[in-house]
Specification:
- The complex is a heterodimer of chains A (about 230) and B (about 300).
- With about 230 residues, chain A is an alpha+beta fold.
- Chain A has 3 domains: about 70 residues, Ubiquitin-like (UB roll); about 80 residues, Alpha-helical ferredoxin (Fumarate Reductase Iron-sulfur Protein, Chain B, domain 2), CATH 1.10.1060.10; about 30 residues, no CATH class.
- Helix content of chain A is about 35%, strand content about 10%.
- Chain A is built from 10 helices and 5 strands.
- The longest helix of chain A has 16 residues.
- Chain A is flat.
- In chain B, strand 5, helix 7 and strand 6 form a beta-alpha-beta unit.
- In chain B, about 50% of the residues are buried.
- Chain B is an alpha/beta fold.
- Chain B contains 12 helices and 8 strands.
- In chain B, helix 1 crosses helix 11 and helix 2 packs across helix 3.
- The longest helix of chain B has 17 residues.
- The chains are: A alpha+beta (about 230), B alpha/beta (about 300).
- At the A-B interface, helix 4 of A face helix 2 of B.
Chain lengths: ~230, ~300
């Protein structure tokens, strides 16, 4: 018989107050373990939604680290705080009405031109995107390149919080992806056909059937559904 | 084909696209491939004279680091503003140890930069590396009878520590024009400032500068003015058409990039896209050169 291993704990500091938490927890779970309840600054808990921006420092190190609280495990001597929201300015626009000039990104976000290429945004990005490079592509009006370089952005806004030039990088990237998708990317034929099918009611009967199923049977169908493993 | 590391700068991808297109074409003719850095950022546009804010030096220095990391000890530019900013930032790194240390400490995820990359303007490639003979050998349409005003502006030659030619009496453009079979005209405003960024908020001042420079070139008998600077080009070309609205008696002179002039002489006028110029150079070029401005 093996002895049940003792749970190893480590010391963290949440907003300056010391807590002892089990090793192996994510920052998010460690905070909950310590008695904090998330009301904002939490979402999918799977690293996709970008809601749980976190900022921390390790004891004895000058570096300020940024990450997602749901994706980062706690380390001994971590000084933690959560950033529930980044107040970065997002411009109002109607994509259908947007005037596509030589550089629509710079038109809506003239603060882009304040970039001095310090690279803080790139160092900050929890998705490891080349943020400064897409800002530079945005300054040059290269919408497609901005859309591609920012494709994996989850809009956490940490770049904007750290930027000395106060650029809202994540909003610029999102605008570029929208313009690219609406005006520049080749139209996807199969998507167009599928949207037509939906509009023509091809799937209405099946949906109607599911909606009207008793819960028991719905559960059974869900459990026995065909799914790729 | 020989590869040389090339830094385009933002303007050459937008407003001055025909500067880049013509340079790429004429380089290819001379067996040189301008190999663009795989990633680059804004050069900083204007060299910062603020002594206590080194943030403004990060942009140009980062480009030199990128060139170094891509294995280049030389980096070539076309835009004279980029050339000036990159060269001066490089001088700062080489000459001021305390600032270099501070910058390297700030850029703590990059390998330290000590100034190992040599920045050159494309005109230095022509004059000092390929030589005027190489240029002359590619000319199929000599610019006989074409009077060209060489407009150097500020950035190519000043300050003299980084300038590529004599700041008071530069000759590199003159030598280029002669190699292409044209005639450089002596022109008193060849190193006069065009007004630069004042064009944004002091249009009147820039209109005055434009009038002085272009009328001076005309008076010296110029058919066309050449430049290496997208901002000089904007001020002398676009602002010259604005000038015509307030000074209808002004006799316009077209302003083109020196690489566009080379493209005409080398027999590739179609890369020039002269229709995009505010003062259309096609008529005078067609009149004066055999092959015309566009095929």
């Amino acid at each position: 018989m093996l002895d049940k291993p003792e749970t190893e704990t480590l010391e963290i500091f949440i907003m300056g107050k010391k807590y002892e938490v089990p090793r192996g927890l994510t920052i998010m779970k460690a905070m909950e373990y310590s008695g904090y309840q998330y009301i904002r600054g939490v979402g999918c808990r799977g690293g996709f939604c970008g809601a749980c921006s976190t900022i921390y420092r390790l004891e004895g190190d000058y570096k300020l680290h940024t990450d997602l609280a749901c994706q980062t495990t706690v380390q001994d001597g971590m000084y933690l705080t959560q950033l529930p929201f980044t107040p970065a300015g997002r411009k109002q626009y109607d994509l259908e009405e947007l005037e596509i000039s030589n550089n629509p990104l710079l038109d809506l976000y003239p603060e882009l031109a304040r970039c001095v290429s310090c690279n803080t945004c790139t160092k900050t990005c929890p998705q490891d995107l080349e943020v400064m490079d897409f800002v530079n592509e945005a300054i040059r009006g290269n919408v497609k390149e901005v859309a591609e370089l920012s494709f994996d952005c989850i809009q956490c806004g940490l770049c904007a919080a750290r930027c000395p030039a106060e650029i809202p990088h994540h909003h610029v990237g999102q605008l570029a992806r929208r313009i690219y998708g609406r005006y520049q990317a080749p139209e996807s034929e199969h998507l167009k056909e599928r949207v037509e099918e939906i509009n023509n009611g091809v799937f209405d009967d099946e949906l109607e059937e599911l909606v009207n199923l008793p819960e028991e049977e719905l559960r059974e169908r869900y459990e026995n559904r065909e799914i790729e493993s | 084909m020989r590869d040389i590391a090339y830094y385009p700068g933002c303007s050459l991808k937008e407003a001055a696209k025909s500067f880049e297109d013509s340079a790429l074409k004429v380089s290819e003719e001379m067996g040189v491939n301008l190999k663009e850095l795989s990633r680059w950022n804004c050069c900083g546009t204007v060299y910062s004279l603020t002594d206590d804010n080194l943030m403004k030096q990060l942009g140009p220095i980062r480009n030199l680091i990128r060139a170094r990391d891509e294995g280049s000890d030389e980096l070539y530019t076309l835009c004279s503003m980029c050339d000036n900013t990159l060269k001066r930032a490089n001088s700062l790194v080489r000459g001021e140890e305390d600032k270099r240390d501070k910058i390297n400490n700030f850029m703590d995820q990059e390998n330290d930069y000590e100034g190992s990359v040599e920045v050159h303007h494309y005109l230095e490639l022509l004059r000092d590396d390929l030589g005027w003979g190489e240029v002359r050998d590619r000319v199929v349409n000599p610019l006989e009878g074409l009077n060209v005003a060489p407009y150097y502006g500020c950035m190519l030659t000043r300050p003299k520590e980084i300038g590529l030619d004599d700041p008071h009496d530069p000759t590199v453009f003159d030598e280029l024009v002669e190699s292409l079979g044209g005639t450089p005209v002596d022109f008193p405003y060849e190193t006069e400032c065009c007004g630069s960024y004042n064009t944004v908020d002091n249009e009147e001042m820039v209109l005055n500068k434009t009038q002085t420079i272009t009328a001076g070139a005309k008076k010296s008998g110029a058919d066309v003015i050449i430049t290496a600077c997208p901002l000089c080009h904007f001020n002398l070309d676009s602002r010259q058409s604005d000038l015509l609205e307030v000074a209808p008696n002004h006799k316009p002179v077209p302003v083109i990039y020196f690489t566009q002039l080379m493209a005409i002489a080398f027999g590739y006028p179609e890369v020039n896209k002269f229709a995009e110029h505010a003062i259309d150079p096609r008529e005078v070029l067609e009149l004066k050169t055999k092959a015309g401005s566009e095929r």
